[in-house]
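Note to self: keep these together.
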Amino acid sequence: MSKPVVDAFFVGRALSQALYHELEKTLTNALSDLGKFDAEQRERLRLFTQEVMERASRESGFVMNAPTNSGISGPIGSPIPEPGDLQATIDELRAEIAQVRAQLQIYRSNRP
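Structure:
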């Protein structure tokens, strides 16, 4: 065999090894960054969930400690229902929504 062929073989082999190492380093860095990102997102989700649960606990404590017949209103101005009245309140809201939808359909059908 001639010397240029042998030299070309070793150059090709060295090139493939160098490319392999660069690819390995790049892939390792990418997976490391992905792992860091995943860990950060999990921590943010955990903190967000914890904050939501703390707020719910505070609001629940506020509602439970409030006198029941003191006229406390909800965000819309309606009284806070008793726990047994919750289903009745939901049914009333559904009926109101149905009425609004019916009126909206009538309005839309009468528009020119």
